[in-house]
Amino acid sequence: MTTADIGGDIVVWDLEKRQLIGKISHVHHAAVTELYFMPGEPVMVSASADNSLRTWVLDGADGMPRQLVILEGHAEGVTAVQFNGKQELVHKRFTKDASLSKATATAIALSPCGNFAFIGYSTGHVDQFNIQSGRHVKTFAKQADQEGEQSEKENSEKAHDSKITALVVDSRGSELITGCYSGKLKYWQARTGKLLATMRTRLRIERSAPCTANSLLAVACIGDEGASVAVVDTLCRRVVRTFSSVGGSVNAMTFSSDGRWLLTADNSKYIRVWELSTSQLIDVMLFDRPCIGMSFNNSGEYLATIHEDEKSIFIWANKKMYASHVNIRALPLDYLPTWKSHVPEVGVNTFVIDDESEEWASSEQIDSSLVTYSGLAPSRWANLPDLALIKERNKPEQPPRKPKQAPFFLTAAPTLEGFEFEVPQEDQDERRRTLQAKRSLLELESSFSSMLRAATSSEDLQEVFQSLKKMSVSAIDFQLRTLPAVLLTKFFKMLTEILKTRRDFDLVQAYLATALKIHRSALWQEEDDAREAEQLTNALEELSLEQERIWSEYDKVMVENAAVTQWVKNALI
């Protein structure tokens, strides 16, 4: 049953359980005047004094309605009326010249500032418009003077002789890159419209995809020998990578968020993943239908794809962001995933991809003098010091409350004078069990603390660390929070032993930062036992010296690598 009030709220009740399911506030801006269910369907229509009709469907697992259609007019009296006119981003040439009447827009790009739109047409014209006003700013023609002013004759000239298939604005918004079907790639100064440079190829350019992480531009070309993809460095204006085994025709392209991978989709239902640093094919995916569009999210965790004749958008998770280890290896250029038909016991036909890659084996430390990372995903340790803050931030503003029962839902008991409502009594047994569980939790010692207490040698401490390493982030946080103060000395000795082996350097830093954050009060207060205080001080001093010794070597190498990398990025070779 659904009810509504004068505040525009809709409330849903469960008559069988005699309780409130939920409430949707401010559905309408005025009082709800009518609620109507379609006969035999879970569809409801709500009407309100705000001059609106809303259609709802109750198909969710929680029983709450989901809004489908809104039909609304003015909620209050109309105060003004005006015809706004026909706003289109179109140049006057297409309405005056009969030969251009069938022209279509084939490429579009937005400036990084979001104020300008660049449109390329099948006739070879390229125009710039102001998005806010819709005003035409300029036309990019083959010949333009230094000030960007063009004569009437030059205004009719085209940027290219064939249709525009590539249109990209660089990250600074200073240069516009256009490509045409005849195989020319031109660089224009966006402010003046001046032609800066031209690159030519014997192939036909079909489409392009820019990389937001750097200055690379992927250009899909097709010729007599088939399709290929060229990666162009727009700063140096030269081709830096070429991939020829991309299928018969390239339907879509995209770069990964960090610019390390290039993904290409062909008309044979395959998506290929190319590693730009090595120019190697590292993955091939086969789908039921050809992919016609795809994009990575900003953090690189998900890939969205759309497919031919499909109404849905498919979201794929990047295994490299979640799995501890992913075996990435170079594949043959003609590699195609093999499929094996498999009939399970339930009798449903399925297909299983035969992954020929071997199980990843943890590589041993190359040299005992080198700092080695654990190889675990950052999600297993990076947020550990701030886990409590993250949980506090994600906590709901108000705790879930038991819905108040309406008066006609309250249980009643007959009496001599009529009836009276029964007053619910507290469940004393439930409260007693809760208190006992909390008391038992305080009295028990965690498994990690027990292992740490029993450890007597360096090998034992390393074994305890390995057990902690296998736990989840929440479990590690719990173990560190329940660690008794008397075991802090052994805990710091354990981290020192791991530092001496120079393994799991990232985990040691995360565990150390978390422990210091949790037990900082215990470390600063004076100990009653002078012997325990001296042992804890010695353990901290030993850990500090080992940490400083390793970090000084590590930091020196990192600074050198950062300097060389910055020089390579800034140098124009």
Key features of this structure:
573 residues; Thrombin, subunit H; Methylamine Dehydrogenase, Chain H; four-stranded antiparallel beta sheet; 12 helices
Describe the structure.
By secondary structure, the protein is of the alpha+beta class. The protein folds into four domains: 71 residues, no CATH class; 91 residues, Thrombin, subunit H (Beta Barrel), CATH 2.40.10.480; 158 residues, Methylamine Dehydrogenase, Chain H; 118 residues. Helix content is 24%, strand content 30%. The protein has twelve helices and 30 strands. The strands form nine sheets. The chain has a four-stranded antiparallel beta sheet, with no helix packed on it. A hairpin with a 3-residue loop joins strand 5 and strand 6. Helix 6 runs antiparallel to helix 7, helix 7 packs across helix 9 and helix 9 packs antiparallel against helix 10. This is Utp21 specific WD40 associated domain protein. One of its GO terms (cellular component) is small-subunit processome. Keywords: WD repeat. One of its GO terms (biological process) is rRNA processing. It comes from Necator americanus.
